[in-house]
Amino acid sequence: MTSSFWLHPSLILIAGALLLPLIPKKIRTAYLIIVPLLVLVRIITMQITGPGIFGTLHTFGLDLIFGRVDRLSQIFAIIMGIMALLGTVYGLHVKENGHHTASWIYVAGSLGVIFAGDFITLFIFWEMMAFSSVFLIWLRRSARSEGAGYRYLLVHVAGGLSLLAGILLRWKATGSFAFDHLSVANPDISTYLIAAGFLLNAAVPPLHAWLPDAYSEATVTGSVFLCAFTTKTAVYALIRSVSGMDILLPLGVAMALYGVVYAVLENDSRKLLAYHIISQVGYMVAAVGLGTELAINGACAHAFAHILYKGLLFMGTGAVLHMTGESRFSALGGLYKKMPLAFLFTLIGGLSISAFPLFSGFVSKSIIVAASFEDHRLWAGMLLLVASAGTFLHTGLKVPYFIWFGKDNCTSDIREKAKDAPWNMNLAMAITAALCIGIGCFPDALYRLLPFAMDFHPYTGYHIAETMQILAFTALGFFICLKILEPHATTSVDLDWFYRNGGRIFLWLAEKPAQRFDTMVNEAYRAVGFFLMSLTARTASVFDAKIIDGVVDGTAASVRSFGDVVRKLQPGQIQTGLLMLAVLLAVFLVLLAFIVIR
Amino acid sequence: MSNDPSNIIVRVIDMMKKHMRIVIIVSVVLLAALVGLSTLVDRTHTHADIEKLPAFWAIFGLVSCLVIIVVSKLLGIIGVSKREDYYDK
Fold first, then answer.
1. CA-to-CA distance for A270 and A276, rounded, in angstroms?
2. Is A565 a residue whose pLDDT tops 60?
3. Nearest CB to B61 within list A262, A474, A494
4. Strands (E) located in A440-581
5. Does position A579 have pLDDT exceeding 80, yes or no?
6. What are the two backbone dihedrals, phi and then psi, of residue A246, each rounded to the nearest 5 degrees?
7. From B58, which residue of chain A is nearest by alpha-carbon distance?
8. Dihedral sign of CA atoms B18, B21, B24, B25 in order
9. Hey, of A151, A257, A260, A261, which one would you mutate to test binding to chain B, going by the most B CBs within 10 A of its CB?
10. CB atoms closer than 10 angstroms to residue A285
11. Residue A587's pLDDT band (boundaries 50, 70, 90)?
């Protein structure tokens, strides 16, 4: 067993999380800021030491690589580090240690995946993310969040199993656990299984329904963390392993549109934002599908910008939820006098995600659109621009309008509670907003971090004119349709319907037809059973005398020959068997969940 | 107190609400000016020929917005929208 010491940033977070309960109250706030700050500093120092392979561990015949540092892992690690700090500052008021512990372990998992050089290390951190983040949902402590948490865990366990199956199959075929680019030109089943595991975490339809379901039910600060780490870590993994996989381009474009269409119907502000994560990650997935250097740069830049503005949006709507206890448009409205700061920050987030000039989305999203045009995928570029009109329609207009303006649906209780959020929330929002504008105004600072050198200038006259026209006339459309867009107290069924109602259907099947069959059998037994019983008794006595004695002698020989068969099985076949077992386990878990979870 | 940022935001919004008519007129003028100015921008490096039409992106934005609203409202009508307590039963 050989190892070289390299301070993994995740280690700081894990140690910090474990020590948290021992920290005296007096220095707790400082401690909560210092730990993620140290992590960020540690990540930035890697920028100085430069790229390389660090933290290798040779054990059990495996080469585990904990620290692969290159430009791709660096840019993702930097933004994760920044977000961990901002998210923690936003949640400083949270007294429960468990909340901070869960968030930090979750971030540690994400950083672990980002620096992982092999699939085993990746898988361990991947599962760590799922099992820690679920607490950010459960800690809301409502009946709904409890159900949403179980569903979240169920879906991610299934995705994790697909990933594991792919990793093992690949190892069997190639003998390597290296987390590198898979051959997307000749994909085999292992490539698809690994990609499916990653795509599930990136919330690519039809594997997306867990995201709006979970993120809308999570705690206020929990959602701020959730919206950043899971999907973007998955985008990183996709870039690393399957960039250039053709199918990802149509999937990503479909995703971008799916999110904005569903967002129209949504009444819960945070669920609307969750659908916009799907939409925005769609741009990144499409870019991974394009796979050109410009597209990969676009995916990285957009992930960077997205984490900040989406975090800001969840902070703004979270502040409203924190103060008023309400996140549905149909129960809010007209709050601009009560919560003007939250309005301003949410608006900045909205303008950033909508790619307004001088805001961060403008300099990142346009790289992806330009990459699709450059690759002569006109349809992809155009459809992504349609999606960006939808983005402004909801996040830039609908969210601010129906919370802070529009019809005042607030009860007197909500109106009384509504006032600007605690200082730490406002501080986190102010810094995030400043970063969104900073990136928009000085894009070169972000471009310098990108994995490939590029010659891209977002601020051309044509690009500004194009964007401003799309946005301004989307706004016109919004005000024309204002009446139709008024919020109603509804929920939208998505593909989670299948596993939320599957349980009920299963129970019904178990109750009604099964019960009827049971009754039928009882009746039949009563009618013919007595005759059969006496017949059986007679046969049994003959059977015992003539046959059993013979069989007992034969059994020993059978066991011995079965042992021979097992011994002759190739180890490979046993691995296949184990794999089958894992698949069966997955099926069993899904069935179990259908029964247990509504 | 009056220099408090949150106060300034509220005052600006209140002023705009008070002069709603002017805000609307200015917005419409700005929309027209935007389309007008856009025709002056260099359009030799467009992605597709159709973009050379005047006000192409303005129409594109408006139509996209309306299509998204119509499609999702249709989805809502055919059964995607359910009562809020649909899953709570």
1. 10
2. no
3. A474
4. 490-492
5. no
6. -55, -40
7. A469
8. negative
9. A261
10. 32
11. low
In three-state secondary structure terms, A59 is strand
Contact B64 A474 (CB under 8 A): yes
Integer Cα distance of A252 and A414 in angstroms: 39
pLDDT at A556: 52
Instruction: Give ∠ CA A210-A212-A217 in degrees, rounded to 5.
Output: 95
Q: Do the chains contact at B62 and A260, CB–CB below 8 Å?
A: no
- Give the residue-averaged pLDDT of A448-462: 93
The length of chain B, given as a count of residues: 89
CA distance A518 to A531: 20
Q: Count CB neighbours of A335 within 10 A.
A: 23
User: CB contact, 8 Å: A483 with chain B?
Assistant: no
Tokens of A506: 């299963």
Residue in this structure with the two tokens 């020993």, named with its chain if needed:
A556
| Beta bridge mates, A52 | A69
Q: Which of B13, B57, B79 sits opposite A466 (nearest CB)?
A: B57
Separation CA A229–CA A13 (nearest Å): 15
Residues, chain A: 598
A468 and B65 within 8 Å at the Cβ level: the answer is: no
- Among A349, A345, A351, A387, smallest CA distance to A368 is for A387
- Nearest CA among A272, A431, A298 for reference residue A370: A298
Cα separation, A87 vs A426, in Å, equals 12
List chain B residues with CB under 8 Å of A378: 47-48
